[in-house]
Design goal:
Layout lengths: L1 H22 L6 E2 L4 H10 L2 E4 L7 E4 L9 E5 L3 E2 L5 H7 L5 E5 L13 H19 L3 E6 L1 H11 L7 E5 L5 H8 L5 H4 L6 H4 L7 E6 L7 H10 L4 E6 L15 H9 L8
Parallel strand pairs: 1-5, 4-6, 4-7, 7-8, 8-9, 9-10
Antiparallel strand pairs: 2-3, 3-6
Length: about 270
């Protein structure tokens, strides 16, 4: 009787693991979706436009005639919402003289397809190449949470040259974060989209700024610090005491915005 009961529990557990394996991306990606018409309306409300074109847009950019910029910052956002929810990057970074492009993922906003690691990285490479074609260098990549994995995947390919990277609440690998939260489901071995930042960024020799929330409840500090310690080249860490994963001090007047960009842009002539 005991053996039969244990076998029954084991079968149920294995079926649960199989279900989680099949549907795991529903637990990783939480896109906010819009029709293309509604996406345009939202963009216009914030004086933005779909870039590079409405028919095949890759992100959102300010609807401005300004042409003189220090460079272009491409923001790859986190796993929830969409690019339109990241207006604070435009508000803070354009004040510092940078063009800001809020990249949009396939499956988010009004974009088609389903998000996966390979899809997001391929799309990220396309986005950076298009930005280089349209605006030229220097290009800086800004990865927020899941976006840190997208940035890491872009750099692993060695297909793109960028001038600096900023990673906000990043992780060493998504598999390690999943294992922290769901160890009882053997998550590290079940996760298909691993986003291994330690491996992907090991040969990047540009400046990397890491922003860490001291009270991060989503990505443990240990995972962010594992990544920071693994970097072999010029790096700097900003820690925000009392901040959680979604409560960083993002007001545009915060001095850290300027400090971070001075650091990552130092090789391009700005003071560190």
């Amino acid at each position: 009787m005991v053996i039969k009961r244990m076998l029954s529990i084991l079968v149920c557990y294995l079926l649960l693991l199989l279900t989680l394996f099949i549907f795991q991306r529903k637990l990783i990606y939480f896109p906010e979706k819009h029709s293309i018409e509604h996406q345009q309306e939202l963009a216009e409300q914030f004086n933005l436009k779909l870039w590079p074109s409405i028919d095949n847009y890759l992100g959102l950019i300010a609807n401005s005639n300004k042409t003189a910029y220090k460079g272009t910052i491409i923001v790859f956002h986190g796993n929830a919402g969409s690019a339109i929810n990241r207006i604070y990057y435009l508000q803070a970074l354009e004040k510092l003289g940078y063009r800001v492009l809020l990249a949009e993922y396939p499956g988010y906003g009004a974009r088609k397809d389903e998000p996966t690691e390979s899809v997001l990285i391929a799309n990220g490479i396309e986005t950076v190449r298009q930005a280089l074609d349209d605006f030229g260098a220097p290009i800086f990549l800004w990865g927020e949470s899941l976006g840190s994995g997208v940035v890491g995947g872009i750099m692993k390919t060695s297909q793109i040259q960028v001038n600096g990277i900023v990673l906000v609440t990043p992780f060493d690998s998504l598999a390690n974060v999943a294992q922290h939260h769901y160890w009882f489901f053997l998550a590290k071995w079940l996760v298909r989209d691993k986003f291994n930042n330690i491996k992907n960024l090991q040969y990047y020799s540009g400046n990397i700024a890491i922003l860490l929330a001291d009270e991060d409840e989503i990505i443990p500090n240990a995972n962010s610090l594992n990544l920071f310690k693994s970097l072999h080249y010029r790096r700097q860490l900003w820690r925000f005491k009392g901040a959680g994963h979604n409560s960083l001090p993002l007001a545009s007047e915060q001095p850290w915005w300027k400090e971070v960009m001075q650091f990552v842009a130092w090789q391009n002539g700005e003071s560190p």
